[in-house]
Amino acid sequence: MIWHAYKRVRANKGSAGVDAVSMEQFDADLSKNLYKLWNRMASGSYFPPPVKEVEIPKKDGKVRKLGIPTIGDRIGQTVVKMYLEPRLEKLFSPNSFGYRPNKSAHQALEQVRKSCWKTDWVIDLDIKGFFDNIDHGKLMLAVERHVPENWVKLYLARWLACPVLTKSGKLITKQGKGTPQGGVISPLMSNLFLHYGFDKWLEQTDNTVNFTRYADDVIVNCKSQQHAEQILKTIENRMHRIGLELHPQKTKIVYCKDYRRKGKYQNVKFDFLGYSFQPRTSRSKGRSGLFLGFDCGISIGSRKRIADKLGELKVHRMTSDSIVGIAKILNPMIRGWVNYYGKFRKSMLHGVFKLLNNRLVKWARKRYKRYKTSIKRAYQWFFRVREQFPDLFYHWKMGYIH
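RE: above sequence
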């Protein structure tokens, strides 16, 4: 089990934890490190080290705190995850898509699209500080129900209670709630918590409601405004009972306005998994002409994050000797953006990639003296390269050539 878990952790890569031991350093004394972990886990004497806190920026300007375990602890958590996951997977709702094998964000988006075409109203739920507020007692009750093995319960309780080492060097202990985002076992535990806390409860409370959940992001589809308001109040009470709270500003009721739904309401748009759902002009299949539909496309926030990343990379100042070198650096990122945000309404990425193409021209003007004084000649160079090597950049290959 330890060996299989190690192989999975190694494939996922990832940074060092509080002990500052990287994967390369761990591998340098691999058999000793794995034997020590096996020996301690098998004897019940394994105590996880604190998790290292890192901050990543959120789209609203705030930061999200992640807890990064050490390499050895990630392997330990992966052992328990691989052992428990097949068992818990059998319980989980088909409407839950986050951090589950053979489930994806694209599947969740597709389900929301179809649900919005069928129903007029949506509740866009935002659980405030979900990972920081998971109640350990309630979570362990759910664990007890499905996990008779004492060794698994022992380690789950220890991981939940594991302290966090902040950036300032302060050690913070958990007060009976919270699980670090970034831990291997956290997504599985959070899905178990919300399976009983939300999914199963909502299915039993009102079976006329469709919902789609991706981790703590939830979209609930309702047939009428009155129904949506009533369900939202019921959900607020439920969250309060399980020790959670809905974000008052970010949680909202939305009208899925399209050519059939002509009511005038303030909220006709919501964001989910980096996409915006809103009224959009669509082309009808099999018929000529356009109509107003309710559909998703890359959100303004996601486009801004890509633009910010391109700005941060300073493409025009890259020191590569040739455009081929630039392509090698950028293509993994471009492929990720196209594959994720190009799934629905891929034409909305044209603006982002136009910006990138302009940066490539700027790079040529800095790199080659003959283009410094003539932007026209620089663009001629760009079009020539693109014509000769249409597959050089992934976005060119996929048709983003404006």
